[in-house]
Amino acid sequence: MAPRNLINLENVSLSYGKGAVLDNVSLGLAESSRIGIVGRNGGGKSSLIKVMSGLETPNSGRVSLTNDTAMGVLAQIDLADPKATVRDIVLGDQQDHEWATNALAREVLTGLFGGFGEALLAREMGPLSGGERRRVALAKLLISDLDVLLLDEPTNHLDVEAVTWLASHLKSRRGLALGVVTHDRWFLDEVCDRTWEVINGVVEEYEGGYSAFVLAKAERMRQSSVEDQKRNNLIRKELAWLRRGAPARTTKPKFRIDAANELISNEPPPRDNIELLAFANARLGKTVYELNDVDIKVGERTLIEHLTWNIGPGDRIGIAGVNGAGKTTILKLLTNTIKPSAGKLVIGTTVKPAFLSQHLEELNPNWRVLEAVEQVASHVEIGKGKSLSASQLCERLGFTTESQWTPVRDLSGGERRRLQLTRLLMGGPNVLILDEPTNDFDVETLAALEDLLDSFAGTLLVVSHDRYFLERACDTFVGVMGDGTVRDLPKGIDQYLALRAAQPTDPTAFTGAESIQTETISASDLRDLTKSRSKVERSIMKVDEKISNLHKLMETAATDFELINDLNNQLNPLVKEKDELENQWLDLSNQIDA
Predict the structure, then answer these.
(1) What 3-state DSSP class applies to 141?
(2) What sign does the dihedral 89-94-99-104 (CA atoms) show?
(3) CA–CA separation, 150 vs 46, rounded Å?
(4) What is the Cα Rg of the chain in Å?
(5) DSSP string, 23-74
(6) In the CATH hierarchy, which top-level class contains the domain 1-70+180-208?
(7) What are phi and psi of 34, to 5 degrees?
């Protein structure tokens, strides 16, 4: 029996006077479904959430909710009373004996805040940071008994550990229907089983999370001769990275299909690291940053102790860490905004840095976008003898020819951040330092930024809670652990989460984060696991060969329906066997790589 729809939209249209945001949209959110909603900023994602939740009335069409459906909505705008306490918002009028025994409330507040107690519950909303207020709003929803949860940018202001915990928690809430707007593509892959793309007023539906969406979109582009070639190449490039370079994505068996391999068979790697390194050496020399036994203090608090770190030409480093651990402070040290409390910092004589901070710089509101960029330079060298004009760089980062004439005062927060980044790149830096560069960007802009960074022949340092962006743009990773240390992360973000989970509980720890296997295994066990994995790989190859032979037979017997039916009956158990073998392979690989 098919699951019933809890929310139905029938021929819904919505307009704010400048063209249709939603144009005759019909869709349904079914029980237990997990929908990721993507699209350009201003394209209608948040409007779709508002219409589904009843917060916005469409101009035409019908929105219906199944009887007795309990729904919760997380909006981007926080309307909480600044005098209200965390307890007022999260627990409402529950008595002490009620919430004291509420295991779900304890799990949620521990997962989002790292602790549960009277001190947390007594805090007023007014002084809380944006990230803390978002966690409180999430906690209120997550401890409620809901059938439908609609989330608009739930990962904003959350660090990588809180995002990991949230994904794990939502996956454990069986029966909950979820609709989520987010630019966090790792989160989309981890949580969602379908993707809705809001584009040109319509909603296109895709099976699977973000990776499946990229694959399906690339396939649609391949089949359509009228698609724009530039967008086609960009999404093919991202698909190539998904299939070749991202461990979290390549472990999904459902993407091991011929169509994906065919699409990327002639696609080069996203970056030519050898060529970029040669160019970086020429621009930067041998020394970029050298930190020798450095301490960093803020007031009386020591954030970093005895840090020795050599950052070389062409390094692409992702920096992970909880809020308050010292990530931004390290960036300020590298840009000479602050001085070390002890130790020595050496900066190469040829270093020309550009620092994208979390704060937007003030620009003349009467400037046009293109004018603001041309104030920096009219052309910028991007390596290999190529250059971009100010207009071309604007276009690469999502400012169309028409929107380049928009006054700065009319730009949204995300557009201002894009403009800030464009101006930085226009200065031709050879060291690019980005502090939370993905804030307010939609997934298309993020893909365009990643594509641009692929050709950046210099040193790149990125602080971001967007795990997908870190893994896509960077080659090596370090973790600011919150205990004064900075650790190399050869295994990437998974290793960071494992190290954090192994630390003693502290005020910034998220003890509810999904645990990761960190125990080492013996050499003999490792050999046994490797042999078992090789055996499974051989079995997969044999099953693949049988499936391929059956497909060939089905092609030659296309008009013999009886034979086709017989061949299909032989094919189905082979496909099921292959899925089981691939899951075995994944389990063994996870044990080997742990």
Answers:
(1) helix
(2) negative
(3) 10
(4) 26
(5) EEEEEEEETT-EEEEE--TTSSHHHHHHHHHTSS--SEEEEEE-TT--EEEE
(6) alpha beta
(7) -125, 105
Higher pLDDT, 56 or 580: 56
Residue 283, C-beta contacts closer than 8 angstroms, at least 6 positions apart: 313, 350, 430, 457, 458
pLDDT digits (tens, 9 = 90+) for 436-493: 888 777 788 888 888 888 878 889 999 998 999 999 899 999 999 988 899 999 989 9
pTM value?
A: 0.69
Q: How far is CA 184 from CA 155, 434, 588, in A?
A: 7, 17, 28
Which structure tokens are listed for 111? Answer: 């997962």
Pairing outcome for strands 20-30 and 431-435: unpaired
Residue 389's φ and ψ, nearest 5 degrees, are -75, 165
What's the pLDDT score for residue 1? 58
Confidence band for 384, pLDDT divided at 50, 70 and 90 = low
Give which of 208, 214, 198, 189 is closest to 52, Cα–Cα.
Answer: 198
Token readout for 529 is 């696991």
> Residue 575 belongs to what H/E stretch?
helix 561-593
Average pLDDT over residues 272-284: 53
Q: Residue 177 in contact with residue 147, Cβ under 8 Å?
A: yes
* DSSP string over 460-509: EEEE-S-HHHHHHH-SEEEEE-SSS-EEE-TTTHHHHHHHHHHSPP-TT-
Report yes or no: 183 and 466 within 8 Å, Cβ to Cβ.
yes
CATH architecture for segment(s) 274-502 = 3-Layer(aba) Sandwich (3.40)
**CA–CA gap between residue 570 and residue 180 (Å, rounded):** 39
Alpha-carbon distance of 470 to 458, in angstroms, equals: 17
Vertex 438, ends 177 and 199: CA angle to 5°? 55
CA-CA-CA-CA torsion sign (270, 275, 280, 281): positive
